[in-house]
Amino acid sequence: MKKLLPLVVLLFTGWALKAQSGCVASASLDVVINNCTSGMHIPGYQQRLILTPNPSDGHISFRFAREQKIEKAEIINAYGQVVIPHIENGLSSHSQISVEALPPGVYFIRIFSENKVYSEHFLRK
Predict the structure, then answer these.
(1) Which of 9, 37, 49, 76 could join 108 in a cystine, given CB atoms 3.0 to 4.6 angstroms apart?
(2) Which residues, other chains included, contact 83 with Cβ-Cβ below 8 Å and sequence gap of 6+?
(3) What is the per-residue pLDDT for 34?
(4) Cβ atoms of residues 75 and 97 within 8 Å
């Protein structure tokens, strides 16, 4: 049996964000790192959106744990710019999207589904 190292818990508290409009918000965040693996396991948690392969050579596939009605999807770069907007044709709970036109980097896919928005990051090699 593999011996597990204790969890590392990082607490980020007391930070504030100020928007250009002048609005100020504060937040705190607890981050749990489990053995420095590529993922975390939270008992009872089922990942809703799964992206593969990650990193990607040119296509990403996504699937939901449960069937979802997909309205549209979009790809966003690390600067928050929408680089592939309004992907709509033929999307279902198990779909593939071409990202061949994107240069290597970190991206996010945002999927709009029945009054909910899902987001997940991926790497383009």
Answers:
(1) 76
(2) 75, 76, 77, 102, 107
(3) 47
(4) yes
C-alpha dist (Å) from residue 36 to 12, 13, 27, 61, 82: 18, 22, 25, 26, 31
Closest CA to 120 of 76, 65, 66: 76
pLDDT in tens, 36-81: 444 555 555 455 788 899 999 999 998 887 787 888 999 999 999 9
107 within 8 A of 58, measured Cβ to Cβ: no
Question: How far from 49 is each of 45, 66, 70, 86, 108, CA to CA, in Å?
Answer: 12, 9, 12, 19, 12
Contact 18, 24 (CB under 8 A): yes
Q: Does domain 49-124 have CATH number 2.60.40.3080?
A: yes
CB 117 within 8 A of CB 73: no
